[in-house]
Design a protein that fits this description.
The complex is a heterodimer.
Chain A (H helix, E strand, L loop, with lengths): L5 E5 L2 E5 L5 H6 L21 E5 L7 E4 L10 E4 L22 H8 L11 H5 L6 H9 L3 H7 L8 H5 L6 H16 L3 H11 L6 E2 L2 E2 L2
Parallel strand pairs in A: 1-5
Antiparallel strand pairs in A: 1-2, 3-4, 3-5, 6-7
Helix pairs in contact in A: 4-5, 4-7, 5-7
Chain B lengths: L7 E2 H9 L12 H8 L9 E2 L9 E2 L1 H7 L2 E2 L10 E10 L3 H12 L4 E4 L8 H4 L4 E2 L8 H11 L6 H21 L28 E2 L5 H14 L4 E4 L4 E6 L5 E8 L4 E12 L23 H9 L3 E2 L4 E8 L13 H4 L4 E2 L13 H13 L4 E3 L2 E6 L1 H7 L3 H4 L1 H9 L9 E10 L2 E3 L11 E3 L4 E2 L10 H18 L13 H12 L7 E2 L11 H5 L7
Parallel strand pairs in B: 1-16, 4-22, 5-6, 5-12, 6-9, 12-20, 19-21
Antiparallel strand pairs in B: 2-3, 7-8, 10-11, 11-12, 13-19, 14-18, 15-17, 16-17, 17-18
Helix pairs in contact in B: 2-11, 4-8, 4-15, 6-7, 7-15
Classes of the chains: A alpha+beta, B alpha/beta.
C-alpha cells in the first residue's frame, strides 16, 4: 500500500485516489453526489459503471467498467449513461413456437443482425473481452448453442450496442439466443416429475397438524 | 469493529496453513452460546426498543431506528406543481422481486409503472452468486425444504409463508425457464436430464439450483429483458421513491418519486403499490463492510413504517461468513457460499479448522469472529480475518475454477493466485433478515401496500439459508404482483397525500422525540446526495 495519491479526472472533476482504488471507489470518495453509473461496486456484474478512459500520454479512448479498472496517474474518465435505442423490435418469449422457426424469429426480432459489417467495434467495446462479433454471426447462422456460450458472461452493459454502426444491439441479440435456447429446450426430468407430484397433491408440506394451502 | 486487533501475522499464518494437517479445534461453544457471545446481533449497542410507531416496544437496530423515527425529505408544500401520473400498479424497486411483481401484474392484466432508484437490475439480485433453492431431487421433498428453512431461521419464521414459498419453488424454476433463464445440468447430462444440485449450509440434502456461480446475473438479465420488452410496463429509471401516498382512510394509493434527470417531484397515483426496495447493507451497521449493492439503504422500511406498516425482526441481520478481508479496498466483497459448498475449509492463523463450514451462516460467521476476537485470526495490513483454503480445494479438483468463475475473478482482484495462496476472509454484512410483515399475498397491514423480497420479514426467521433469497423474490414477487393487479380502488376515487407522515411527526412531538435526521437516505453517506439541495427546494420560513 502506497500513501502517495494519484490524480485523475472523472467526469470533469479532479479526483485524488489511492493507487489501490478502482475508478468507482475513487469517484465514490471524491466530493460529488453519486446517483448513477454505480451498482455492484466491484463485483463486475451489473454493467452500470461503463465509462470511457484515456490514459495519460495516449490518444486512444477505450471503454471499461469503472469498478474493475484501477486508477492511474493522469487518467481521464467519463461515465456513459444507460440508454435504450429508439427502435426496438419487441418480442414475447412466452409467445414463441416449437423451435423450428429460430431463424425466422431471429430475423423478425433483430432484422439488422445480418447487416453486420465486421468492423469489430463491438469486440473492442466489450469490457469482458467477449467475442461479440463472432456471437452475432453465430445467432444469424442459427447456431444458438454456440452463441449462448459466446455471450455466457455478458453483463448487459450495452457498450457493444453503443458501438454498433448497424444498430444491431449485439448483447440483446445474444441474450435472445440464450433465452430462446432455455425456454425452448430446457426440460429437466427431475423438475417435471416434482411439479407433477405437487400438482397432483401427492407431495405437500405438513406442519402442526395443518396442511399448507 | 473498533476493538484492538491482535492475531497472527500473515507470513506466519501462511506457513502454519501450508504445514497443517487441518485438525479441527474441539472447543467450539454450543451454538446458542456462540451466537450470544460473538454474533454481531447480540453485541452491546446492536438493538434498542422503538419508542413510537406500529412497532413501539419492539427491538430494532439503533441505526435503523434513527431512520424510522426521523424527518421526511419533503413536506406537503413542496408538492405544489408536481407532475401527476397514474397507473394500476406502482412497483417501487428494480431488482428481482420488483421485476417478478411487474411481470406478474401485467400477466394479470394491469398497467404497471416501475420506479427504480438507479436503473432496473441495479440490485442485490444481480450480485447473487450461489443459487436458488428448490426441492426437486428424488432424495428431497418440500417437507425437508420447509424444515431446513424453519430450523435455519431459529424457529422464528412464519410457518405459513415458509410452507407456501417452498411449495412455490419448483413452479418458480419453471417460470424462470419459461422466460429464458438457464440452469446448470448434472455432469454429462443434456437438457432433458437432471439439474445440478449444490449443498447449502444448514440443509440436509443438496438443493441449490444454479447457473455457474453467477445465478443472480443470469436471472436478472433475463428478468430485465422481459420487463423492458413488456409494453404494459413503464420504466422510470433514476426515480427514487421518497414517500408513499395515503388516502383519508390510511390506505396506500401511490408514492412520491423524485426524477433525478429533471430534478422534480412526481406524484404517482395507483390502485395498489408493490414495495420491493430491498435491504439495508449500505448502512454499514456496526461498522461492518458489506457485500450489498450501492442502493441498499432501507428506503422501503422507512416509507412503510411512516404509513403504518408493521415490521418484524428488525434487530436481525445476516453477516455472510466469507467476505474479502484483504486487500482493504475490496473489504466486504462477497465470496460465494458455493466455495464452501464445494469443500473449501476455513483455517485460522494457527493452521487449525475451527467450525464445520456447512453449518448455518450465522453460526459460521460467529465462529470466525470468535477466532479473530480471541487472537487466532490472521492479521495483514491492519485487516483481520481467517483463511479460506482454496489451494487444497484446487489441488484436489483442478477443474473447480471452471465452475467457480467468480472465485477466480475475485481472487485475481485480491492479487491472489487461488491455487497457490488462500483468500483472507471476514464476515460481511449481507442480508436484512427482518422487514415488513406480510400475508401470503405479500400484503402488509396497510391496505393497498404489497411488499416482496428483502424488504419483507417473516420468511427467513432470524437467519436465512443460502438460495432462499432468490426463491423468496420470485415466489413472493409473483404473488404480490398478481394480487396487487386485482385489488384496490378505482383510480378515479384515489386521492393521496402525506397525512400519515404528519401523524408520525405528531407522535414524535407527544413522546418528546427530536430528530434532525432526514430519511429515506436514498444513497450511502459517501454518495453525498442532498435531495432538497439537488431539487432546489426552499426551506420553510419559520
Amino acid at each position: 500500500m502506497s500513501n502517495s495519491l494519484l490524480t485523475l479526472t472523472i467526469n470533469g472533476h479532479e479526483v485524488h485516489a489511492s493507487p489501490d482504488a478502482s475508478i468507482i471507489q475513487a469517484y465514490a470518495h471524491a466530493d460529488n453526489a453519486i446517483t448513477a453509473n454505480v451498482g455492484c461496486m466491484g463485483q463486475g456484474v451489473c454493467g452500470s459503471c461503463r465509462c470511457m478512459i484515456r490514459k495519460e500520454g495516449e490518444r486512444e479512448v477505450r471503454t471499461a467498467l469503472a469498478c474493475e479498472t484501477k486508477v492511474e496517474q493522469g487518467m481521464q474518465v467519463s461515465f456513459i449513461d444507460y440508454f435504450i435505442p429508439e427502435h426496438i423490435q419487441y418480442y414475447d418469449i412466452t409467445a414463441i413456437g416449437d423451435g423450428w422457426n429460430w431463424l425466422e424469429d431471429t430475423q423478425k426480432a433483430f432484422p439488422e443482425a445480418e447487416h453486420c459489417r465486421h468492423c469489430g467495434g463491438c469486440n473492442r467495446a466489450c469490457p469482458k473481452g467477449l467475442e461479440v462479433e463472432n456471437g452475432v454471426a453465430q445467432v444469424v447462422a442459427g447456431d444458438f448453442g454456440a452463441a449462448a456460450d459466446t455471450f455466457d458472461q455478458c453483463v448487459m452493459c450495452n457498450l457493444c450496442t453503443l458501438s454498433c454502426p448497424e444498430h444491431i444491439r449485439p448483447n440483446h441479440l445474444g441474450l435472445f439466443a440464450r433465452r430462446m435456447k432455455a425456454a425452448r429446450t430446457l426440460r429437466p426430468v427431475d423438475l417435471m416429475r416434482r411439479l407433477r407430484e405437487i400438482d397432483s397433491g401427492k407431495m405437500k408440506v405438513e406442519f402442526d397438524g395443518e396442511l399448507a394451502s | 469493529m473498533s476493538e484492538h486487533i491482535t492475531g497472527i501475522d500473515y507470513q506466519t499464518a501462511l506457513a502454519n496453513l501450508r504445514s497443517s494437517d487441518l485438525t479441527m479445534r474441539e472447543d467450539l461453544p454450543p451454538q446458542d452460546e456462540l451466537l450470544r457471545r460473538f454474533h454481531p446481533d447480540y453485541q452491546d449497542g446492536a438493538r434498542i426498543k422503538l419508542p413510537i410507531g406500529p412497532n413501539a416496544g419492539d427491538y430494532c437496530h439503533p441505526e435503523l431506528a434513527k431512520l424510522l423515527i426521523s424527518q421526511p425529505l419533503i413536506n406537503d408544500y413542496d408538492l405544489s406543481g408536481a407532475e401527476h401520473l397514474n397507473t394500476d400498479v406502482l412497483v417501487i424497486g428494480g431488482g428481482g422481486a420488483g421485476a417478478a411483481a411487474a411481470l406478474s401484474a401485467t400477466e394479470a392484466g394491469a398497467r404497471v409503472i416501475m420506479a427504480n432508484k438507479l436503473r432496473i437490475g441495479d440490485s442485490n439480485t444481480v450480485m447473487a452468486e450461489g443459487g436458488i433453492q428448490a426441492a426437486i431431487g428424488a432424495d428431497d421433498s418440500l417437507q425437508q425444504h420447509f424444515e431446513d428453512t424453519f430450523k435455519g431461521g431459529h424457529h422464528a419464521a412464519n410457518k405459513h409463508l415458509v410452507a407456501q414459498m417452498v411449495t412455490d419453488a419448483p413452479a418458480a424454476i419453471r417460470w424462470l425457464i419459461g422466460l429464458g433463464m438457464t440452469f446448470d445440468l448434472a455432469k454429462g447430462e443434456n437438457n432433458n436430464g437432471h439439474l445440478s444440485r449444490k449443498r447449502a449450509g444448514g440443509t440436509t440434502v443438496p438443493r441449490i439450483l444454479s447457473y455457474r456461480d453467477f445465478t443472480g446475473l443470469e436471472m436478472m438479465r433475463v428478468l430485465r429483458e422481459a420487463v423492458e420488452l413488456d409494453e404494459n410496463i413503464t420504466q422510470l429509471n433514476r426515480h427514487p421513491a421518497i414517500e408513499l401516498l395515503s388516502d383519508e382512510h390510511g390506505r396506500c394509493v401511490g408514492a412520491i418519486l423524485y426524477d433525478l434527470e429533471k430534478r422534480r417531484l412526481i406524484l404517482v397515483h395507483a390502485k395498489s403499490v408493490v414495495l420491493a426496495t430491498g435491504g439495508s447493507g449500505r448502512l454499514h451497521l456496526q461498522g461492518f463492510a458489506t457485500s450489498n449493492h450501492y442502493g441498499a439503504t432501507a428506503d422501503g422500511l422507512v416509507m412503510a413504517y411512516r404509513i403504518g406498516a408493521k415490521l418484524k425482526d428488525m434487530d436481525s441481520f445476516q453477516y455472510h461468513p466469507t467476505g474479502v478481508a484483504h486487500p482493504p479496498h475490496l473489504a466486504g466483497a462477497l465470496i460465494s457460499e458455493a466455495v464452501r459448498s464445494a469443500g473449501t475449509k476455513l483455517v485460522n492463523g494457527l493452521g487449525e479448522r475451527f467450525v464445520d463450514e456447512l453449518l448455518p451462516r450465522d453460526v459460521v460467521a460467529a465462529a470466525i469472529l470468535r477466532e479473530c476476537r480471541e487472537g487466532r485470526g490472521v492479521v495483514w495490513d491492519g485487516q483481520v480475518g481467517v483463511f479460506l483454503d482454496t489451494p487444497r480445494l484446487i489441488a484436489g479438483d483442478p477443474d473447480v475454477l471452471n465452475r467457480l468463475v467468480t472465485l477466480g475473478h475475485i481472487a485475481h482482484k485480491c492479487g491472489v493466485n487461488p491455487a497457490e495462496e488462500p483468500v483472507m476472509i471476514h464476515p460481511t454484512l449481507h442480508y436484512q433478515n427482518g422487514g415488513i410483515e406480510i400475508d401470503g399475498n405479500g400484503e402488509s397491514c396497510v391496505e393497498g401496500l404489497y411488499c416482496a423480497g428483502e424488504v419483507t420479514g417473516g420468511i427467513h426467521g432470524r437467519n436465512r439459508l443460502m438460495g432462499n433469497a432468490l426463491l423468496d423474490i420470485i415466489s413472493f414477487g409473483r404473488r404480490a404482483g398478481a394480487a396487487a393487479a386485482t385489488s384496490g380502488l378505482p383510480l378515479k376515487k384515489v386521492r393521496g397525500g402525506v397525512g400519515h407522515v404528519h401523524n408520525l411527526q405528531r407522535e414524535m412531538t407527544r413522546a418528546g422525540l427530536v430528530s434532525e435526521v432526514k430519511a429515506p437516505v436514498l444513497y450511502p453517506n459517501y454518495g453525498k446526495f442532498d435531495l432538497r439541495e439537488h431539487a432546489g427546494l426552499q426551506e420553510q420560513q419559520s
